[in-house]
């Protein structure tokens, strides 16, 4: 079963971590058991976004160093019954090697229907670590040139690592602004530039960012929830059309 998915982006600020959480919640609503792994060492934020900051005693580096068991480094979400989190180390120097991280993921993945890995932005060592155990990948970008260029770099490096099943998520899309800026003739131009098949088009909604920072992910807070429900169903193998609200 190809159940390990890395979510990556070429540059920061695309909303990649928000996509990770919204997708995880949507999959959980489909009856799936999800492990969300924060791989952004030194900059972790998923615990805050899930209102779990005070719960975390151990992180991924503690698990592999023997400071705790793997089970003790996995924490259940307060607001989502079948969503679990493994936090990234607070200190960047505790970043796991690709080989060690792959062994960690291999040891826990069979307990979950899906493992979602939040990669740090860019294509540095943290990205390589996050992508190494992945069966497939979602590349998150915004419909503007620097973000699209970053998506191209991510795709190229995923292919080098051996991840071939790659799909594109265009995030924070606003039709009127897209047309006014005129960077691209249409969405097909964006997709063609990345050379990645589109799997989701997520509308811009400021409420998503606000709710995430308040740590109440999983509530029915946005019209975009329908898009993530559709994305989850497509990842589960259902033949459903793209959804876009807005």
Q: Which parts are unreliable, with pLDDT below 50 for 5 consecutive residues or more? A: none
Over the alpha carbons, how many angstroms does the gyration radius reach? Answer: 17 Å
User: How many beta-strand segments?
Assistant: 8
> Major sheet: order of its strands?
3-4-2-5-1-6-7-8
Q: Which sheet architecture does the biggest sheet show? A: 8 strands, mixed
Q: What is the beta-strand fraction? A: 15-25%
Shape: globular
Share of residues in helices: 25-40%
**Helix/strand order:** EHEHHEEHEHEHEHHEHH
* Tally of individual helices: 10
Q: Span between N and C termini?
A: 34 Å
Instruction: Please state the structural category.
Output: alpha/beta
Determine the mean pLDDT: 88
Features:
single chain; 246 residues; alpha/beta
Notes on the protein architecture:
- With 246 residues, the chain is of the alpha/beta class.
- Helix content is 38%, strand content 17%.
- It is built from 10 helices and 8 strands.
- The chain has an 8-stranded mixed β-sheet, with helices on both faces.
- A hairpin with a 6-residue loop joins strand 3 and strand 4.
- The longest helix has 17 residues, at 145-161.
- The radius of gyration is 17 Å and the shape is globular.
- The termini are far apart.
- The mean pLDDT is 88.
């Amino acid at each position: 079963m190809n159940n390990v998915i890395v979510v990556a982006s070429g540059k920061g600020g695309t909303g990649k971590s928000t996509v990770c959480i919204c997708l995880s919640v949507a999959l959980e609503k489909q009856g799936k058991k999800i492990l969300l792994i924060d791989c952004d060492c030194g900059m972790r934020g998923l615990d805050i976004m899930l209102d779990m900051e005070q719960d975390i005693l151990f992180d991924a580096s503690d698990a592999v160093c023997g400071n705790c068991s793997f089970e003790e480094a996995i924490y259940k979400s307060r607001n989502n019954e079948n969503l679990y989190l493994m936090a990234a180390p607070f200190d960047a120097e505790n970043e796991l090697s690709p080989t060690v991280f792959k062994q960690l993921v291999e040891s826990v993945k069979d307990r979950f229907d899906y493992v979602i890995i939040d990669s740090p932005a860019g294509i540095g060592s943290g990205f390589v670590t996050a992508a190494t155990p992945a069966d497939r990948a979602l590349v998150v970008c915004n419909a503007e040139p620097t973000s699209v260029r970053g998506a191209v770099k991510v795709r190229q490096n995923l292919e080098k690592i051996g991840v071939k099943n790659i799909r594109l998520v265009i995030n924070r899309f606003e039709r009127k602004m897209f047309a006014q800026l005129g960077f691209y003739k249409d969405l097909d131009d964006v997709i063609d530039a990345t050379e990645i098949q589109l799997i989701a088009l997520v509308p811009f909604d400021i409420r998503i960012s606000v709710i995430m920072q308040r740590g109440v992910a999983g509530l029915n807070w946005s019209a975009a929830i329908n898009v993530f429900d559709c994305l989850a169903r497509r990842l589960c193998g259902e033949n459903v059309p793209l959804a876009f609200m807005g």
